[in-house]
Amino acid sequence: MTRAVGMLCGGVLCVASALVSAQAPQAPGVAGAPVTFTEHVAPILFTNCTTCHRPGEAAPFTLMDYEDARRRGRLLAAVTASGVMPPWKAAPGDYAFTNERRLTADQIDVLRRWVEGGMPEGDPARLPELPAFIEGWELGAPDLVVTMPEPFAVPADGPDVYRNFVLPLNLEEDTWVRAVDFRPSARSVVHHSLFFLDQTGAARQRDEQDPDPGFEGAMGGGVGVTRGGGAGLRALMGLGGARGRRGGGAGAADGGAELLRRGGSTLGGWALGGRAQQLPDGLAFFVPRGSDLILSTHFHPSGKAEQETSTVGLYFADRPPTNAFAPIQLPPVFGALEGIDIPAGERGYTISDSFVLPVEVEAFGVTAHAHYLGKEMKLTATLPGGETRTLLWIDDWDFSWQEAYRFTEFVRLPQGTRLDVTIGYDNSADNPRNPSNPPMRVTWGEESTDEMGSMSLQIVPVRPGDLATLQEAYAGHVREAALTRPGLAQLIQRAIGRRGGGPR
Length: 504
Prior knowledge:
By secondary structure, the protein is α+β, with helices and mostly antiparallel strands. It has helices at about 35-50, 65-70, 75-80, 105-115, 200-210, 225, 230-235, 255-260, 465-485, 485-500, and strands at about 145, 150-155, 160-170, 175-185, 190-200, 215, 265-270, 275-280, 285, 290-300, 305-310, 310-315, 325-330, 340, 350-355, 360-370, 375-380, 390-395, 405-415, 420-425, 440-445, 455-460. The chain is built from 10 helices and 22 strands. The strands form 6 sheets. Strands 1, 4, 8, 9 and 12 form a 5-stranded antiparallel β-sheet that branches. It has a 5-stranded antiparallel β-sheet with strand order 6-3-10-5-7, with helices on one face. Strands 13-22-16-19 form a 4-stranded antiparallel β-sheet. Helix 8 (about 255-260) packs across helix 9.
């Protein structure tokens, strides 16, 4: 999963962070004592900014020494005081995340006081060493390296570009993957990339139909919903026959339960400043033979035309995992069954979903997804005793800031815990991220200007034998959603319209 991400897209500003947040530096011991770069400011910047603000990375300027910081001092104080930087969308909740980059109030105050005090350098002997950044493959040589078959031309300017690329894995047998590393060739324009698996061949077909490398759309994993045929749709919805066998393949018709048992059909993602993603010990991604890897990539033009050729390294597990993890996505299928239909000008549109855990589980990560109109996303757990805890709350969703959140410790959720997800959208002219001016009606779809909405909790059954019970309960939840919610008809109409060449 993505360990870090950070960039403020717009003009020449990009103050980013990618390492886990450090302990707050010691504030000056005496009230009114001078704040210096070497003793107080450098530890903050080196930990939270320099990983992206260094040569060869995407940030437009470096933050590696005193002169770098002095030239940008007022900017640094302003963006940290406003909460824009370092970029971290999760609001404070009940559980800590390993990749949290939120600055403390003391750290923000240190930057302010340094600027107001004239930005003194301080004693060079107190300057900490720069972090040791790993060059090349962070985890050593991968077991499998795949590269985009041809480069994609990113224009010098214009709107952000969302593109999906198909990388054949050519695996002749089912494989377990414990870690994934992503290496963009043009870091200045690659904002993030999400990784999906496609067993249906639908992504290859879309790629072949597009004259340029890859194909348009925001979600590489969404292709199976409307373009993968009935089998792909049934699999994502949990409506297929659960014919998967232990150690065997999981084809599209094997059903959502089998995909759940195998850990889903995604491999996480990467974002600016990101590091190689490793699953917790004893867990691994299942990659069926014949799968294609889909990179769903967001490009942000930098003012200079670039050619991007992404490379991905896969690290195989030495043995099958000791336990299985399951992504519980609410609402299912990225909200496709909810009948998302947001009127122009509507600023308070919401969707919601709930699921009661039939067994005791441990959660280790959580993700969220929506497009430009997404405003607020919240996932809570109401325990059997009635206590409600926040697992993830994003109170100012930004399509440009998608990342995976990993809990510092496994979160134990007893049997009978109710998971509740609420997602809010703003389709008004007051939403600065609204891509339409004036606002237009928006329905569910794969393109960036369509909408989606879901949150996914990565969980491990405490007792491995309970996995089948969890599978059956979640598959039943998805079936009920398909039969009782308005989105299925909307989805079928879109598919029919595409086959017939009619309007979307």
